[in-house]
Write the structure tokens for this entry.
Amino acid sequence: MKLNVISVQDFGESLEDIIDSAQRLKKGALKGSDPLKGKTLAMIFEKASTRTRVSFEVAMTQLGGHSIFLSPKDIQIGRGETISDTAKVLSRMVDCIVYRAFKHDMMLELANSATVPVISALDDLEHPCQAVADLLTIKEQKGKFKGLKLAYVGDGSNVCNSLMLGSAMVGMDFAAACPKGYEPDANLIKQSMKIAKRKGCSVKVVEDPSDAARKADILYTDTWVSMGVEDETMERERVFKPYQLNSDLLKKAKKDCMVLHCLPAHRGLEITDEVMDGPQSFIFDQSENRLHTEKAILLTLIH
Ligand code: CP
Ligand code: NVA
């Protein structure tokens, strides 16, 4: 059976193994060998990307394979060919498809029609590969997950949804502070709580950022205006103002609390320069870790 990575849940019990494998790859494992020689990755991006696109392309190069970047405006999708037919055609030629989609339904349609593994490069519901890099960054700094508390402040976005699921899967306490109406996906909250119960940790969604930040080992935020909701910018900037990750909020967390952000950041909005460039920020390690985790994911899916 082919594997897809559409949700963090698709990693199942292998999630921690993938994180460990990424850590070994970062330290140089497989350097100089070409485990994906002759393999091709197709990458369809409906939205902009710096980290995800570059990390997958570089990962394929360093593993000896090849990648093809396909912008919808350059391929026949832009002229009306269905995503499902595109998936069937690509499956006859490439070994894996990475897809960044506006809509989760489109992601499912592509995954259902493709006969090769499909990896989500983000959609409006989840960003599973980001969560793996986030967890690797935490493991590197703290050496464990159990007994830690991650506090997410801001928009209950795709990034927040995947991080919530991922935290529960590795047994780490998770608290999100979001304004009313901007909470993580209700169904994924339920699923995360179920997983957390099994793993002996907790998942909470609150409204007050100080509440979430109290005793946190990790403080995390994402943009207030995700790709696709730009027409809500003014309203969102008003609603999210009290949710800024700044030094006042950081003081409420543990002394050795680390700061993460998936990037791109909007400095002065969801995070201040002072925090982003401060000693507690591991944000650029986190972005580098996209490369090591994409490698571990590709090696798991492509044979
Ligand atoms: N964090 C992340 O996915 O960044 P890009 O949008 O640049 O890929
Ligand atoms: N929530 C953001 C993440 C970008 C990596 C977005 O969807 O635009």
User: Anything to note?
Assistant: The pocket of phosphoric acid mono(formamide)ester (ligand 1) is lined by residues 49-52, 122, 130, 262-264 (CB under 6 Å). The chain has two domains: 8-126+290-301, 130-287. The beta strands are 40-45, 66-70, 96-100, 118-120, 149-153, 173-177, 203-206, 218-221, 258-261. The chain is about 40% helix and 15% strand.
